[in-house]
Amino acid sequence: MFCVYLRRICIVLLLDKMFCIFCKTSPMSCVSLAVLEVRLKDGAHSCEGRVEVKYQGEWGTVDDLNWSMEEAAVGCRQLGCGGATDAPKGAHFGLGIGPIWFRYIYCKSQESAITECSYPSVKDHRPEGNSHDKDAGAVCSALELRLINGDHSCEGRVEVKHQGKWGTVNDLNWSMEEAHVVCRQLRCGAAVDAPKGSKFGPGIGPVWFRYIYCKGQESVITECSYPSLKDHRTEGYSHNKDAGAICSAREVRLKDGAHSCEGRVEVKHQGKWGTVNDQNWSLEAAAVVCRELKCGAAINASRGAHFGPGIGPIWFQYIYCNGTESSLMECSYPPLKNYLSEGLSHDGDAGAVCSALEVRLKDGGHRCEGRVEVKHQGEWGTVNDHSWSLEEAQVVCRQLGCGAAIDAPGGAYFGPGIGPIWFHSTNCKGTESVLTVCGYPSLKDHRPEGLSHDQDAGAVCSDLELRLMDGDHPCEGRVEVKHQGAWGTVNDYNWNMEEAHVVCRQLRCGAAVHAPKGSKFGPGIGPIWFHYIYCKGQESAINECSYPVVMDHHPEGHSHNKDAGAVCSALEVRLKDGAHHCEGRVEVKHQGEWGTVNDQNWSLEEAQVVCRQLKCGAATDAPRGAYLGSGTGPIWFQYIYCNGTESLPTQCSYPPLKDHRPEGLSHDGDAGAVCSALEVRLKDGAHSCEGRVEVKHQGKWGTVNDLNWSLGEATVVCRQLGCGAATSASRGAHFGPGNGPIWFKYTYCKGIESVLTDCTYPVLKDYRPEGLSHDQDAGAVCSALEVRLKDGAHSCEGRVEVKHQGEWGTVNDYNWSMEEAAVVCRQLGCGGAVDAPKGTKFGPGIGPIWFHYIYCKGPESAITKCSYPTVKDHRPEGHSHDKDAGAVCSALELRLKDGAHRCEGRVEVKHQGEWGTVNDLNWSLEEASVVCRQLGCGTAVDAPKGTKFGPGIGPIWFHYIYCKGPESAITECSYPTVKDHRPEGHSHDKDAGAVCSEVQLITNGTSQCEGQVKMNISGRWRVLCASHWSLANANVVCRQLGCGVAISTPRGPHLVEGNDQISTARFHCSGAEAFLWSCPVTVLGGPDCSHGNTASVICSDSRQLRLVDGGGPCAGRVEILDHGSWGTICDDGWDLDDARVVCRQLGCGDALNATGSAHFGAGSGPIWLDDLNCAGNESHVWRCPSQGWGKHDCRHKQDAGVICSDREKLRLRGGDRECSGRVEVWHSGSWGTVCDDSWSLAEAEVVCQQLGCGPALEAVWAAAFGPGNGSIWLDEVRCGGRESSLWDCAAEPWGQSDCKHEEDAGVRCSGE
Questions:
Q1: For position 589, what pLDDT does the model report?
Q2: Which of 500, 728, 1027, 1250 is positioned for an S-S bond with 515, CB 3.0–4.6 A?
Q3: First-last CA distance in the chain
Q4: Which residues form the SRCR domain (predicted)?
């Protein structure tokens, strides 16, 4: 283009975003157009506000002359904020400050940045009379994108969310280029097709895009050209032309390197792994691969098949990256196809070597503040503060798990570092999960370029804690966040199910079922920390979401009337219909109902997470296609995507939970998992807490390779074995080489995990075939820790000391608080903490300082269950005994107040010399039982909530208590810090109570409901005299104990007698009283009783028995109903004699099998019995000898089950030999048949194998062996073929059939 410039003819050129003027008599002069940054300021979020442009290092505004939706659309596109929904003028978002850089802008709306529009010279236009009263603004709608109605999440109809509503894209101009951008934005790899004409069915709602024009290399569709977003149906467009896309989800890996972060670059496309040709391959491209794999920075970009030639296709002819992309799919490259046919060979395969970057904060007051340092190539270095801001600091804080950034100091605020300056600059949005996902130039030491440590960047973080308050349980309530030591709330602006979902996931409360707004759980108090939060719904914690700077937003006019809340459904997981409780169909309990997981995307990674949650060790198989039988009920998960290292499926990515059957999914695609429960031991050491680390997998003991083995990993092993702290992490087969498999190639632990399976590790297999040997077996030496309080006034206060390696040492008071002191007090049985003194209040200790710090949540039972760094003497690091931590504990007193007697009433606890109450959150019979036991008041018969005994006064000491039931005192239960919770909004309207029975029966083990009657009189237990003891008296005792009605009042030696004192009290009950002490009583003149003449009773027993989750009433997990609660039996000592009693009691015939290890799934509620020892002839299972009612040391993974004979009676009738005929089953006391609906060779195989008749030859239909008679017990039977019994297969409920006997099923088996 020619122009006249200073009366000379000049040429104007646009060269790579440079505006250049070349005149004949002057050198070329160029000005960069790329220097202009754009932002939206003072809006409610980052995608609305006053338009500001950064020019010559200074932010300025845009005058609203000619400002319209077209100009706003370009601003929104440039910011990646989707389409424009408004273009306000007249300083709608307030007056800006500084220059007015643009007098006007004219755009066509299809430009990708405002510098591509037309505008006069960029300068400050205020001297020309322009003012900030006319600053232009923009309101954008950040566009979300999805593919709908395809076979998976990476194919389907293209839909865009605009103004809160999903709509479609018209297929005008639609081609592979546009589809390519859609696939790239969704991280679904490359486009393989761009279907038009509503191939995936017509959509509903708006048609937002009339057309889109892309070059194919854009990263998101908002970078393409398109007209203004609006509903184009009014212009005659219909959903018959909705555009679609089919993508090939692309995975990336590094192969044949020494570890997972180096090797040949391979990409999975169209289901096949292939390589990348090294044409144009550079460190920038390798950096993108390393970033995508979260392997840190690239340190080499090898060419020429450095890691050996690959096999299969060469998918990439070349790739061009600038180095800041987050994945390879965001780089530029030609269409993906196999380039082997064009002459390329694997001799030119590209490779990458990455250095996984570690990050730390150094020389701050605590681990969450300090100078930012990065470890690269084995050396720690710093980050230059060029472009350093809160956004970059936010990413560092998030990566370190330190919550939100509250400051981003530059200028070596925490002192100059030493060594390399690895980062010249960083550019983060603030929402990235790790620093390596941000943009930055190549990592190298920038000191030779003139940078110095005077400009080292720093970060100050505030670790965010999260809780739900004032709901009915800990998984619902008002969302509260702890920041800078104070709890505050979240404003409900933008609050929806995605945000609630992340809250529920972070709290391990399962899926969100509701995201209430408007202070549904009552207004909070204190700061409003979050103006808004924006989550995609798949993040693992809220600090991974997007949000503005965390500060108190009260001064901005926000109030607690808009506090956000969340209601979560804690997801339970189980494996069903496998051979044992660690294999089976994956089932999830959501909204109170069990459902299944569809097998789309199901792999060993997802199965690994399920196995880890169930504490079942490693996944050995991830079967698909209902391999372990079809489930029933909802299909809750359309798909789930895990990387394999998560601890719970709820930490993986998945779409909203709902029943996906209406969308066409069926139980034929149910996913399964087969796990191998891992045991750990230390072998060939001097004692059981040192030795070679060995793991039992698939029934075989094997070893752990010492790659990456350190004290962090050894600490977890020691913790898992209950052996205290790790003192050494030996390598090189220090305890001798093991034998057998090498199960672990490596493990990576942070050191705070509770078991080894919580760490990160590759798939478990024998790595000896890959060249590993037992010369590198890992080992561990542990030291069991003792704790004491020293130099206090009594044994429950003093300086905290820990015995490690045989020597007592102290704990540094860094991070020391009431939570840590509470754990010490609990471990020592000293009640609650009343003070957590720092600074050597009890005098300086001597010897080592074993703990640099401890971090506890408060409810842990011992300090070894808290988080802490390696236990060693920290004095050489500069720590001194001037900062020894201490604890003052208050052994809590307990009483029941305002009841009819001393063993019932409102629960009150004396703490710091003052009586207070217990909030009834989580209060149940288990907690009341512990109160009754501690007070010597017998058993709990009720656990009233809601101030049954009137509101208390004074403090509310306990926010909640969680007990298992067998504890001897409430201080052995779990509870948060003991303090007055009234300031948090709790009131005495929810004081907990307990009703204890002062009557008990001394039994001989036959039953909990028969025996000698004992009563607590004046604090002492006494037996009652049988003189004048009546059936009416006995009836009251049975009722009081929840044992039904009295059957008899026997006397004789068959009941327990002891040396207890005998009471001479005589009761005169009518039989209708609720409690024995409610009856009239007189006292005999003298004791005319002997131990052979004491009151006794046999009650009818109100307990009930059932079998559940076994497919019928005569098989399943054993459950007993007592006091309104169903509970289970522990499998300790469980055998066929015990099972026979259960089967007989239920009328289910004899016992065939006594199952353990929660074979029928883990139950819930109490565990009523343990160490059962039945003779086999008892009438009730609870009359067998045991540890005692409610006493156990088990978990529900040890629930006992039975299979009774009436459950699996199976026979063949009407055939010409024993192993062929009509299939008949026994149920409810009679034989019946099976309908042939869905009957196939798979079902026949199960029948033949169950009868010992060999493999099935034929599945026979239509009553080929003659019609049966009686009931048709089963219909729609569906087996996988591997089940051990027909009862393990899915079917319609027993007796529910629409068949006739002309449809009776039969089999022909190979056996005779």
A1: 82
A2: 500
A3: 97
A4: 38-141, 145-248, 252-355, 359-462, 466-569, 573-676, 680-783, 787-890, 894-997, 999-1100, 1105-1205, 1210-1310
pLDDT of residue 919: 92
Look at residue 597 in the predicted model and tell me its pLDDT. 95
Across 942-953, average pLDDT: 87
Quick: pLDDT tens for 506-551.
887 777 778 899 898 888 888 998 888 888 777 777 877 777 767 8
**Distances, alpha carbon 180 to alpha carbons 150, 405, 768, in Å:** 17, 37, 43
Question: Residues with Cβ < 8 Å from 808, sequence gap 6 or more?
Answer: 788, 790, 801, 802, 845, 847
Closest CA to 847 of 798, 807, 805, 876: 807
H or E segment to which residue 266 belongs: strand 262-269
Residue type, 683: K
Percent of the chain at pLDDT > 70 equals 89
Spatial distance between the Cα atoms of 1138 and 1154, rounded to a whole number of angstroms: 8
Q: Is the distance from CB of 874 to CB of 884 less than 8 angstroms?
A: no
Helix (H) or strand (E) holding 1246: helix 1241-1250
Task: Return d(Cα 574, Cα 1159) in angstroms, integer.
Answer: 11
CA gap 861, 825 in Å, rounded? 9
pLDDT value for 558: 87
Region for 502 from its dihedrals, namely left if φ exceeds 0, alpha if ψ lies in -120 to 50, beta otherwise: alpha
Give 35's pLDDT tier (boundaries 50, 70, 90).
very low
pLDDT in tens, 1158-1202: 888 888 888 889 889 888 877 788 878 887 777 787 888 889 999
Taking the CA atoms of 20, 21, 24 and 28 in sequence, report the sign of the dihedral they define: negative
Three-state DSSP string of 918-942: EECCCCCHHHHHHHHHHCCCCEEEE
The answer, yes or no, to whether residue 670 has pLDDT greater than 90, is yes
Instruction: Give the lowest-confidence range in 105-119, 455-469, 1016-1030.
Output: 1016-1030
Q: How far apart are CA 441 and CA 1081, in angstroms?
A: 91
Give me the pLDDT at residue 1030, please: 85
Q: Which two tokens mark 1150?
A: 């004899």
**What is the DSSP-derived secondary structure letter of residue 667?**
G
Residue 43 to residue 50: CA distance in whole angstroms? 7
What are the residues facing 1154 on neighbouring strands?
Answer: 1202
pLDDT at residue 250, rounded to an integer: 65
Among 692, 783, 673, CA closest to 744 = 692
> What is the pairing mode between strands 1115-1122 and 1104-1112?
antiparallel
Q: Alpha helix locations (H) across 255-371?
A: 283-292
Q: Which residues on neighbouring strands pair with residue 407, listed in sequence order?
A: 460
Q: Using one digit for the tens of pLDDT, what is the confidence trace for 803-827?
A: 887 789 999 998 898 889 988 988 8
Encoding tokens for residue 717? 């092993």
pLDDT band, very low/low/confident/very high, at 777 (cuts 50, 70, 90): very high
Residue 722 confidence class, pLDDT cut points 50, 70, 90: low
Give the three-state DSSP class for 822: helix
Is residue 214 within 8 A of residue 194, CB to CB? The reply is no
| Helix (H) / strand (E) containing 369 | strand 369-376
Pair of tokens at residue 844: 């300086």
Comparing CA positions, the residue from 580, 583, 628 lying closest to residue 607 is: 583
| C-alpha of 577 from chain center | 25
How far apart CA 1278 and CA 1286 sit, in angstroms, is 9
- Phi and psi at 1180, nearest 5°, equal -135, 140
Mean pLDDT of the region 437-462:
85
CB atoms within 10 A of CB 964: 19
The answer to whether 728 and 709 have CB atoms below 8 angstroms apart is no
DSSP secondary structure string for all residues of 97-165 = -S-EEEEE-B--S--SSGGGSB----S--GGGT--GGGB-EEEEEPPEEEEEESSSTTEEEEEEEETTE
The burial of 511, by beta-carbon neighbours within 10 Å (0-12 exposed, 13-18 middle, 19 or more buried), is given as: buried
Supply 1087's token pair.
Answer: 């004791």
